[in-house]
Amino acid sequence: MIQDTAGLVSCQFPDSARKERLIRYMNASHVAGYVGLGGPYSKRHFFDHFNQEHNLLNKDELAKVDHHNMDSGSATFKELITWCQLEVAAARKAGHIDTYEAVELQNRCLNFRAAMDGIYDYCEQPTQFFYIHFLVLISTIYLPLFAVGSGYSSGWGDEMDWKIEILNVTIVALQAIFVVGLRLLAQKMVDPYGLDLEDLSVISYIYVGIENSNIIMSAQPPPN
Questions:
Q1: Where are the domains of the chain?
Q2: How far apart are the C-alpha atoms of 128 and 121, rounded to whole Å?
Q3: What tens digit of pLDDT does each residue of 172-206 get?
């Protein structure tokens, strides 16, 4: 959606300062949206890095949203989206775009906000309680009891059969691996925006959004 917006404003906005500001705000809101999740992506180590590298917000703009505390929720991201909408409205009022173009851009802003809100909705709906509950129950009660039962069934002293013992050890180990693996998988599903390799590529999303929008905004018209 950032690329769509960049493509629209690069063709429709005659005011270069206004269209660059709109894309800056949208890219800034993208980064701020991940910061607000409260995970490993903090304002200090994540947003400030991208802000310094790509000049997303200046000091005055940062000061206006500083009261929201970017690390504690989605307020900063939503205010930045509102700034994007205000830029579109100002461009329409100034006659730079017509009503249809303004509606298209406003829809892009709102759709982008809805997409980011979906991330927060997902975080509020973790893996179902009973799924985790039964896995924990199996891990803490069933697996130890099964291991003890398998040990008794293998026999004692001269009655012990090493073949059955090896078979039971293998079965216990496999069951433990399966159950503990399912529990770890559930824990990863609860937090898909972390720094592990299987988590979503948040940093890649940020770089792709910024770089592609910059490419679109800097495109030159074809020769006559």
A1: 2-125+201-217, 129-190
A2: 14
A3: 888 888 887 777 777 666 666 666 666 666 777 77
